[in-house]
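cache lookup: miss for this entity combination. No prior model stored, computing from scratch. Input as submitted by user K.M.:
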Amino acid sequence: MSTTTVTTTQVYRVYIKATAEAIWQAITDPEWTNRYGYGGYVHYDLRPGGALTVNPGEEMQVQSAAMGHQLPDVIIDGEVIEADPPHKLVTTWRMLMDPGMAAEGFTRISYEIKSLGGFCSLTVVHDLEGAPGLAAVVGGQQEEFGAGGGHAWILSDLKSLLETGSRMVG
Amino acid sequence: MTDDDDLGSVFRALADPSRRFLLDLLFARDGRTLTELESELSMTRFGVMKHLKVLEDAGLVVTRRSGREKLHFLNPVPIRLIHDRWIDKYTERNVTALLDLKNELEKPS
């Protein structure tokens, strides 16, 4: 007998030649998060119930203004569910840049870092139940419309930054 | 997955039509069990498992447990790495133009 599973979860994994601590810092330190992917300054209160907020970076503000779109001060918010540095971070996650996606409400994202001797795996699991608009954006399906390549693009850029000190895309 | 050797495993995994078909299935609907995937291929369960193992070793498929089930997810990151490394903005435009031309020419009239 076969059952059909329908999932709204997206899973991404990248292998990076860096320590777990360096990868953790790149995910949680605002000076690092503005250097790859979409940029933006991430602020975590790293305890259960602590707040997550992301403020837009300068580059993002300039690009948005050029397209006639005024960014809010907080573009992503959420709440920390689990923080176990430098191995696991789970939060709720809501995109506020666009009213449609904001209305989809909170999703749930987890980052898992595993040391594998000389390099690490970083696995991102984004549970996007009830958020099809956000799922399309973080899945990279809106890239040709200027919405960037989503998680795969962010992780590719993060790997490049940590391994070579510079970004691959820009 | 961190060196050219590891990208080699991605290309080798993609070289087989059954494995590309498995990735297409997961692209259409992610998070499937072995039983669901098996029902789409005229191949033994063992054969499908072997192909999934190659895809997993290449990082193109990531599995997660959900209760008693093992779900298979398409991981697009290795393909993204190849894209970001070899297709720059300039060539990307040309590739897109060529693909548009191909699609246009192959459109059923």
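stored under new cache key. Chain B has a mean pLDDT of 86.
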